[in-house]
Here is the input.
Amino acid sequence: MNDVIVVASGKGGTGKSTVCVGLSVALVKQKKKVLLIDCDCGMRGLDLMLDVEEEILFDCSDAICGNCKPSDAVYKSKNLSGLFLMAAPFDTDNEISPSVFKQLVDGLKNDYDYVIIDSPAGIGSGFATAAAPATRALIVTNAEPTSVRGAIKIRNRLSRLEIDDIRLVINRFNREQFEQLDSFEDLDEIIDDIAVRLIALVPYDVRLSAIFQNGYAGLNWSPAVTVFDCLAKRIEGFDIPLAFRG
Here is the structure.
């Protein structure tokens, strides 16, 4: 299939990286081989979430600059066979151009069923680079006004980049907090404002963040596992209902 999916958000703090890892783990459970690429130059974190930070010698900028072969910058997840990571550079000066990054991903994607790219938040140059090789996109938002405004900007930019297969993930949803905030009449208003079809509603679960932040992706889990399993199946094209409806 060789799908390349960019996961983007208009503002930081939406849990975008958690969605990337959760989706990747769920796809691997479905016997898919997944390459997860951290494209957040200077702010990389996926190596910590997959517990491979001590192993990283080369990152995607090294592969592009010729410091190593592209395959040398790909690291296996310790906890889950079938999941691989290419880390972002620590140095923001090593930002990568869209055309060069696309060339890198095009050279790697045939070895995997899915390439999932964790884009930096916002619509700056890093986002343009992350989106360049993508054929599909997931926009991650929270159910609050500033996050929704950012999601609208991301949708507009993706459309200008001619990425038409775009789906929405509402993350960290808590019904009680949503009603207390009282910014939207219901979830349909958010979906209508962003004008992107909803593919997953992920409940707020602090245990999920704790699991990933401590590098245990694939070993321990939370009740949100069923949501990511459902998301992976919907990405695969299965016509199934949402696992969580809020």
Notes: The longest strand covers residues 165-173. DSSP finds ten helices and eight strands in the chain. The chain has a mean pLDDT of 89.
